[in-house]
Amino acid sequence: MGAVSILHTVFGVFGDATGLFLFLAPTITFKRILKNKSTEEFSGIPYPMTLLNCLLSAWYGLPFISENNTLVTVINGTGAIIEAVYVLVFVIYAPKKEKTKVIGLVTFVLAAFSTVALVSVAALHGKTRRYFCGFAAAIFSVIMYGSPLSIMRTVIRTKSVEFMPFFLSLFVFLCGTSWFIFGLLGNDPFVYVCNGFGSVLGALQLILYAIYRKNKGEKATTGKDGGSAMEMGVRNGKEHLEKGKSMAVSPPENGRL
């Protein structure tokens, strides 16, 4: 049991480290957003959903909810602060339609967390409280891990990984795997089930990245006599083609994350 306890702590610490990198990975994307003053075609859905997951997981890890999960609270409390900053930046620079969607999601996030916290404190006790908070955290962890599915569909459709950052995918895999093992060692299904799903999803993202890693917004020219160019990246708006008979549009510099 001593060895299991040590391994449990080790994987918890490793989970905190990889979790921090996971939360910080989008800074590359947000540096681009701040530079261009536009969210382009980046999806705003993952950030509010990750915020909700962090809030619920941090709540679940508190000693009066579940035992031996302090490391869960530490990393998810930190993650909640980081995700709140991402959401704020995204709302500032997103187009009106996307901004409305994100604000609606944030409202849902705050309402959902407040409901879970109040019900668990005011109406539930002991194992019932733990199960209630555990189920809530697990459900939204799966939703958080599943939120990049829309981007994965875009990668398959466009055959480009421009809008699926590599490090985000890598740390989804590492973080999910770490907490999956942590949950197994601690015999906590509320931790290992959802993080096992995250580990698998992260692995699938890495596989997609390996397949399409060479395509990051390039344009491919098609047609006879150097016809018009087709954009492979998923950017907002349409590029204007240069006038002139039988002239190909030369590809611009690749947009890099």
TrEMBL record:
It is found in: Cell membrane. GO terms for molecular function: sugar transmembrane transporter activity. Keywords: Cell membrane, Membrane, Repeat, Sugar transport, Transmembrane, Transmembrane helix, Transport. It holds the Pfam family MtN3_slv. GO terms for biological process: protein homooligomerization. InterPro entries: SWEET, SWEET_rpt. GO terms for cellular component: plasma membrane. It is a multi-pass membrane protein. It comes from the Eukaryota. The chain crosses the membrane at residues 6-30, 42-62, 74-95, 102-125, 131-151, 163-184, 190-212. Mediates both low-affinity uptake and efflux of sugar across the membrane. Belongs to the SWEET sugar transporter family. This is Bidirectional sugar transporter SWEET. It comes from Tagetes erecta (African marigold).
